[in-house]
């Protein structure tokens, strides 16, 4: 078991969070189309953006249901967890600490 053992919160919350973020990156075209459609359609977006919404859902769901994608996100999570245990600094915070403008 050791390092690979995942708590429920990790399996059910933290890894799916990484999956959502990564899937949105990979479906960025669909995300943009849907966002643009919503901006353009205002209150009618539910009706007008069905096509874009379905395309986005399809793209995301394909990733969510892909075991290889889950594994990839799990490994990324474990790597971050490992780093955190070594340094005591969460990855996200570590990235924020780097000076952005020189």
TrEMBL record:
Pfam families to which the protein is assigned, alphabetical: Cmc1 (PF08583)
InterPro entries xrefs: Cyt_c_biogenesis_Cmc1-like
Organism superkingdom: Eukaryota
GO cellular component: mitochondrion
Principal cellular location given in the protein's record: mitochondrion
Key words, A-Z: Disulfide bond, Mitochondrion
Subcellular location(s) of the protein: Mitochondrion
Family: Belongs to the CMC family.
Listed name of the protein: COX assembly mitochondrial protein
Organism lineage string: Eukaryota, Metazoa, Chordata, Craniata, Vertebrata
